Amino acid sequence: MTKAEDGRSIGIQGRVREVLARGAPNFVREYAIEKEWQESLARLKEKLPELRRVKNRLPRTVLIIPDGGRRFAKEHGISDERAYNLGARLLYEGLMQFDEFSEVKNIILWAWSTDNEIKRPREQKEAVFKTMAKCLADYRDELVERNARVTRVGRIDRLTLPLARELGRAELATGENSGTNIILAIDYGEDYEDSLFAQEVARSNLNEWAITPELAVRLREQARSIPVPDLVIRTSGELHLSKFPYSNHAELVVVDTNLPATMPDVFADALLSYTNRDIRGGR
Question: Which of 58, 90, 274, 280 is 20 to 30 A off residue 250, Cα-Cα?
C-alpha cells in the first residue's frame, strides 16, 4: 500500500480514483501495473500448480455474470462507459491467464440479458455495446493467436450495427480455432431459449397429447443454443442467477467486489472451490 499526501493509506479503489482523475488515456494499463494487480497476478501464478493437480476436475463450462459496473462508476465519479471499458479489459486480461487449462471448454460471458434490453435505458445499452465492440476489435488478432474461438448466442436483430459487425468479424476470424470457446450471450435469456423450444415443438408436427415430459426434455435439448453451465461466477455480491437458462444444477461462486475491482486470482479461487465440492448434479 502507498500513502496519500495526508498520510492515510489508499487501496485499490483509491488508486483507480487517482488514475482516472489524472485523465490518463491508457488508464487500463496504468491500473494493471498497480501494486494490487501485480500482487493478484502473483497469487494467481502461485495457485496454478494446484489447479494443474486437479485439472481433471475443472468445470467444462463456466458462466460469468459480470456485474457492478454502474455502481463502480458512481463510486468513482466516472462515466458508465469508462467503468465498462475498464471492467471488460481487466476481465479479459484475467481470464487469459488460464490459457493452458483446456479442460475448461467454454467460457460464457452474459453481457446483456433480454431483461436488460427491456428495462435498461438506451444510453446504458449503447455504452455496453460500444465497449463490447471495441474489445472485440482490440483483441481479435490476439484471440486468433491464442487459438480461442468467439461465438455469439441471443437475438441479433436488436444489436447495434458496430457490435454486430465486430461480432461477425471475430466469429469469422476465430471460427477454425480449437481452443476455449468464448461465448458472448448478448440480448439473451430464458425467454430466448423458450422461443427456440417453441419453434422446435412446432417443427415436430406432433399432436399435443403425444408430447410427454420425456419427449419435451429431448426437444428442449435439441433446441438449446448454449452449453449447460457447470460453474457460475457472479461479481458484485448479488446472490441470484437472474433466470439464466439451464443453470439449475450449476455450482455458484459469488464475488463481493464490483467487476472493475475484481482481481484475476479470484477466478482461480472459484475454480479451486469448484474442484473441492461434492458435485452431484441432481443425483
Answer: 90
